[in-house]
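Protocol step 4 of 6: record predicted structures for both targets in the notebook before any analysis. Target 1:
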Amino acid sequence: MSLSEQDLQKYVGQNVDDTQKELENEGYKVHLVSTGRCATGCVPPNNPHRSADGTVTQDKRAIISFNGDDPERKITSIRQD
């Protein structure tokens, strides 16, 4: 089950690493984007998967942004794709 955008917003201000583990346990593929002096991150396209019977599915993905200069690594924004 996917979380709503409102559910995801409860993670803003929390630690990136803890949130990443929690979301991965819920079946999300998590992509991190760091802002600040050493900005990093990449959000690859979300390509659908086609099974042998023709069913098309997509991964549940969460994109998390955080300030890389913040020693506490708090989330500044989060969204699902």
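Target 2:
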Amino acid sequence: MTTIFRQYTFDDSFEQVFVSSKFLKEYQIALTLAIDYDEDGVPTNGVFRPTWDLTKVTPLAITQFKKDHPDVNVKVFISIGNNGTQYPFCPIEKKSWIDNATKSLTNIIKDKEYDLQVDGIDIFYQHIETDPSDFVECISQVIKNLKENGVIKVASISPSFAVNKEYYFSLYKSCSSLIDWVDYQFQNEVTSVFDPNTLVDIYNKLGTDFYPKKKLFAGYSAENEDWATLSPIVFFLGGIDIIKKRKGPGISIHYHNYYVETPLHH
């Protein structure tokens, strides 16, 4: 059983994860988050900045991780968006947002100071304060620009229950050929998931009604506050079923380094 594993992280905790080519064909490091708000929380209309720990996520750390795991394909993503209600998607003006986002994300990805060998971007807006057509237009155009300019090779979207149908599925339909992976966030279900079969049923329905299963990850948050919705054991058992029996391509987990007293960026 070889699969894809994605870790969402804002620090270098990916260095502590056991990675073996016996189980994994690809390991994705998704850096959280790049946001288009300044340090005071004022919207910057598409001018993105990184909020992950720049002292820990360094070119050397990424290079060393790749050297340590030569048999596994390591890919780096920048996640743009929000976790919770802070920093919602809310462009002040669409055209300038698209231009600013294209330019600022290009700068982050190509910047020699960061030089994190970024392969792609991940769209992780869980709170959106605009209508679906604006979201679709802005995000699809930025993905298109970055791919056509050779800035990124891959793009993923990370929907959850509240924003899936209107926003993310509309986005997917508008530019499905540009979206390589769909990482559905199960920790944001409205109703708690108490058994693995329920998780698998939701996954199957997503694969029938919305996205092709060959692109569909099962996503999960191991942060303590998300356990009420979905416990680790339920996700673990359901995730194994999805990968083994349903032929799902991969899973993702959000967790941070509990050994370091670093505040989470929300």
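Step 5 preliminary note on target 2. The helical segments are 59-68, 94-110, 132-148, 161-174, 196-209, 232-244. The first strand starts at residue 3 and ends at 9.
Proceed to step 6 after PI sign-off.
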